[in-house]
Design brief:
With 277 residues, the chain is an alpha+beta fold. It is 32% helix and 27% strand. The strands form two sheets. Strands 7-10-9-11-12-13-8-14 form an eight-stranded antiparallel beta sheet. The chain has a six-stranded antiparallel beta sheet with strand order 1-2-3-4-5-6.
Length: 277
């Protein structure tokens, strides 16, 4: 069975409605629905799915009581975005005044509990400038000293929803275990997500069951550029939207390859010193 987001996207595509998937983490995703893609910037609203159900985000957040109404609701809004009130009434949407604030606060507590610290805007900007200056990432030609290794993970995009999540969690675990072997016990990682908040991650972050599912930034790209790097940039993991994962610096590529040895969905593309996964 297709995961929910594919079913919804396919149904909207059949209605000639342009959408874009946004998946912040393994526990929830959002589908941007464009009702005027030719405008600048494009006009859109979002439908979000969390473990609590489906929500509409259109200036205000609303709970969608019936999942079966999501496609019809989107079609009605695209046909006439100004008809929000009639859509709210027709589909009995329930206004969620504090939804995003409550969700964000709860997730921030969870992230902190498993070793994450949110960076300030200035810290995040400085970190990206440093990564771009020294590694040329993101960019067409990433500049890395040997050793480094690159894997093609694009097949993960073809997995069903559960398979995608399990692969992402496995990569998070493999990355954290690898960094633990290559960094000092008290050394922090910097985790970056292009155009989103950055974090510092304690290298001894918990690996108890389910903890890596709580990460606000996954090692595998969710459609943006992700970077997990040591503070001095001597080693790290770079993830691109096309599914390529590059591991560089010291023993990290070799250790990561060993961690991924049993992950048969990974294909080695090229490397800096014949490190085969």
């Amino acid at each position: 069975m297709d995961p929910a987001y594919r079913t919804i996207q396919r149904s909207l595509f059949d209605l000639n409605i342009h959408t874009e998937l946004w998946r912040p983490n393994g526990r929830w995703f959002a589908i941007k629905v464009y009702y005027s893609p030719a405008s600048d910037p494009p006009a859109f609203f979002s439908v979000l799915h969390t473990r609590r159900g489906w929500f509409l985000s259109a200036g205000t957040n609303y709970l969608i009581p019936n999942e079966d109404d999501v496609v019809d609701l989107c079609g009605a809004l695209v046909a006439g975005p100004s008809s929000l009130k009639s859509v709210v009434d027709k589909f009995r949407l329930q206004k969620q005044v504090t939804w995003f604030r409550d969700e964000s606060a709860a997730e921030a507590d969870l992230w902190q509990a498993v070793g994450w610290r949110k960076q300030s805007d200035s810290e995040n900007e400085s970190a990206w400038k440093s990564v771009n200056r020294h590694l040329m990432f993101p960019g067409d030609e990433v500049s890395l000293a040997r050793p480094f290794a690159t894997w093609d993970l694009s097949v993960i995009y073809d997995f069903d929803w559960n398979g995608h999540d399990q692969a992402s969690i496995r990569l998070n675990e493999a990355g954290l275990l690898s960094f633990r072997q290559c960094l000092a016990a008290d050394e922090e990682l910097i985790a970056l997500n292009w155009n989103h908040s950055g974090y510092s991650l304690a290298s001894n972050a918990s690996l108890q069951t389910g903890d890596t599912e709580l990460w606000p930034i996954s090692i595998f790209s969710d459609g943006d550029y992700h970077a997990f790097v040591s503070g001095d940039l001597r080693c790290g993991i770079l993830s691109q939207p096309d599914g390529k994962l590059t591991v560089f610096g010291g023993r990290l590529p070799e250790v990561m390859a060993l961690q991924l040895a049993n992950a048969n969905f990974i294909k080695s593309l090229n490397d800096g010193r014949a490190v085969e996964p």
